[in-house]
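queue> pop job 88
queue> type: inverse folding (structure -> sequence)
queue> payload:
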């Protein structure tokens, strides 16, 4: 019987990061959105309580990918409130009363919130049905989080906001007004954006080639994917998981030159099992010597053996198939909702871009690729598609009122839509990024190796939504105009 692999420290640091992150996010929302920010803080507390209760009642097994799903759902819960509050401020700026602004704000934000969350929920459902192991854990926590976030933002937040209004807090100064933003011509810079993205992605493929030549692998595959060496040692005393993480693991990492180390205690004994990448004979001897010198163990009590991977080819295939099916389902849903396949195609291209950028991060930083790699990619897909849909929703809304189908009209619509949702995109990115950054700062090695590429992905998802997705839709739309003109001639 072996003890936990992540250990008490990983759990305590993750919980501490989540608590501090939630407090920072609440303060940020209050400063940014005044009275509605206070309401959102209360709503977020209700949401967090409901998520914990659901995880407990449904007995969901919590894994690192599961933690990723919770982080993403918290980000999306905040995002829904940001969308609503931005709409309320726009209504107030248009001269509406506070009561009308609140009612209209929720009504106008509904489509963006539903489309963004339902798209991600479709992905979670497919991953839960088709995926295996850690993928299912991610899908479960994400689905629970999405359903509860929609409930809290559309029901709890609305009731609370109406309650504070009924209590007499009706002055506009408590709610704020949307400020007119100077337009930026994002569309004209699409060539620069595409060039930058292509250069970054190209550096990733070049890095893969270099790593292939030097080590034989294009990525730093972890124990889960390629197996390694298991070293069993009878220590001088019983060690807790916290002591193992603090005293033993750093020394092992120093010997192997790799942060991908898994250590577990055998229950009821002094024995510890240390799993690392495949070690050469010299490295095994160096590890034995380190253990002997630092923990006074007998060389006869140290044994090593090779171990196989825990992620089978079938599991890899299941994960890939699940992601592909989820992407296709999301594409179909966006096509159906937006009545234009160009929106769906643009969103999928932006998704592909984000995945490749995060992959480049794994290559350049030589981060260990294990089960957390799958979770990280799934998180980025869910986050990015939600970001993109919010901007697409604005474009769709504007298209209903503007019927001049010209290149200039489409350019103005895209630029205006991006600027209208800019504060939402930036604020949501900040709140979600803070949660992951604290995991990186406070977490153990395995948590940090998961948090770093996730931070890169969050920034990349925001960038692609603002600078690529809508601009690609514009290019598709202009090309359609040109084709139509040629047919007329």
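queue> result:
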């Amino acid at each position: 019987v072996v003890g936990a692999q992540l250990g008490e420290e990983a759990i305590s640091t993750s919980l501490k990061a989540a608590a501090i992150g939630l407090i920072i996010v609440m303060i940020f929302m209050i400063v940014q959105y005044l009275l509605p920010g206070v309401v959102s803080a209360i709503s977020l507390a209700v949401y967090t309580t409901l998520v914990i209760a659901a995880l407990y009642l449904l007995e969901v097994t919590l894994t690192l990918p599961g933690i990723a799903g919770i982080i993403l759902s918290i980000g999306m819960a905040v995002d829904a409130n940001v969308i609503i509050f931005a709409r309320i401020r726009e209504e107030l700026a248009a001269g509406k009363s506070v009561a009308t602004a609140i009612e209209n704000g929720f009504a106008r934000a509904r489509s963006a919130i539903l489309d963004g969350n339902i798209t991600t929920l479709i992905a979670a459902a497919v991953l839960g049905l088709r995926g295996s192991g850690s993928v299912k854990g991610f899908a479960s926590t994400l689905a629970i989080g999405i359903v509860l976030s929609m409930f809290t933002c559309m029901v709890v937040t609305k009731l609370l906001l109406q309650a504070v209004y009924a209590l007499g807090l009706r002055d506009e100064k408590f709610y704020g007004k949307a400020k007119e933003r100077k337009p930026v011509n994002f569309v004209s810079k699409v060539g620069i954006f595409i060039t930058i993205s292509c250069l970054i992605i190209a550096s990733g493929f070049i890095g893969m080639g270099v790593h292939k030549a030097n080590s034989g692998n294009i990525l730093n595959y972890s124990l889960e994917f390629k197996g390694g060496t298991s070293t069993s040692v009878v220590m001088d005393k019983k060690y807790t998981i916290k002591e193992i993480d603090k005293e033993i693991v750093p020394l092992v990492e120093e010997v192997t030159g790799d942060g991908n180390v898994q250590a577990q205690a055998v229950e009821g004994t002094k024995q510890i099992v240390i799993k690392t990448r495949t070690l050469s004979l010299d490295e095994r001897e160096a590890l034995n010597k380190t253990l002997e010198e630092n923990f006074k163990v007998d060389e006869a009590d140290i044994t090593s053996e090779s171990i196989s991977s825990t992620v089978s080819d079938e599991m890899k295939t299941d994960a890939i198939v699940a992601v592909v099916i989820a992407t296709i389902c999301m594409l179909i849903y966006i096509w159906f909702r937006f009545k234009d396949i160009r929106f769906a195609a643009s969103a999928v291209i932006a998704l592909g871009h984000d995945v490749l950028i995060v992959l480049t991060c794994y290559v350049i930083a030589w981060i260990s690729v294990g089960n957390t790699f799958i979770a990280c990619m799934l998180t980025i897909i869910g986050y990015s598609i939600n970001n993109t849909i919010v901007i697409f929703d604005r474009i769709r809304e504007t298209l209903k009122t503007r019927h001049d189908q010209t290149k200039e009209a489409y350019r103005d619509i895209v630029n205006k839509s991006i600027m209208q949702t800019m504060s939402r995109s930036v604020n949501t990115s900040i709140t979600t990024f803070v949660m992951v950054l604290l995991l990186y700062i406070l977490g153990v090695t395995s948590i940090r190796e998961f948090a770093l590429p996730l931070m890169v992905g969050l920034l990349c998802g925001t960038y692609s939504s603002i600078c690529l997705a809508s601009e690609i839709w514009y290019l598709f739309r202009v090309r359609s105009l040109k084709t139509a003109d040629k047919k007329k001639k």
